[in-house]
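Q: How would the structure tokens look for this protein?
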Amino acid sequence: MLRTVTGPIRAASVEGAVLPHEHLRTDMRWAVGIDSDPHRWLDEEHTVTDELLDLRRSEGLSLVVDLTCLGMGRDAAGLARLAAAARVPVIASTGVFSEPFSPARDADVHTLTRLLMDEISNGLDGTGVFPGVIGEVGCWGAAPTPAEERALIAAAHASMATRLPVATHGRDALGVLEILLAQGLPSSRVAAGYAGSDLPEARKIAEMGAYVSVTALGDGVDAAVRVALGLIEEGHGERLLLSTGTSRVSQLAKYEGPGYAHLFHAVLPRLREAGVDEDTIRLVTHGNPLRWLTSGAA
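A: Here is the predicted structure in token form.
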């Protein structure tokens, strides 16, 4: 079963494409210790609804994972409205985002773990919406700070207690993954957000048993295609996740951005042109994300 914002659904009922790393509503304009950015936000409920509805019709989009956790401007009630209007199931997240945005940067691991467990058990922000994933958690800078490491450890503890999968982000993808695995978290439960074009690093993540989560906007189309092809050719296709990674209003198609269709219109055509067959495309866009989301199932 998958916990979506409109209620639990069977994984088997998800027949089409899955976007495993998206943001449907964010607000990260202001932060502590880094420059503010008035463009670092996304609050266009009707516009996002229309894009997802179009993708459901044109590309068979069947599930979206929203990785907007604590500190990122999460709106659980808005996600529920959006999912119902677009008729696309949406999974919401818990977790504490990077230190510059964290609402609990001074909290210890025990306090952070209790916070996540409360959201997992009782719902998000008093809405009755339950999270189906923990993340995205990780680091904003070159390596995790002590506060970010505590948030990662709490995510690992909550995942081990509840079996929810974990999504990470940050330039130090291997370092973040190692912190989680050091707590005893199974690597198959982790989707490691990959920022870069270093195929050897992506290969190492896959060899460790985690999923390499590549986004067309975060990593760039050229890098996304290069890493995806490399992993597929080396036999690591079963550890690859592909998504768009939309997080700003300027990225929406309405404002001449690539939008949530970017994966389908820019990345997948290039993989096909390079000789990737349809079975592998379906594995990456359907089978892999569902396997990650249900990796903790008994």
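The first helix runs from residue 45 to 59.

Residues 18 and 63 are 5 Å apart (CA to CA).

Upvote if useful.
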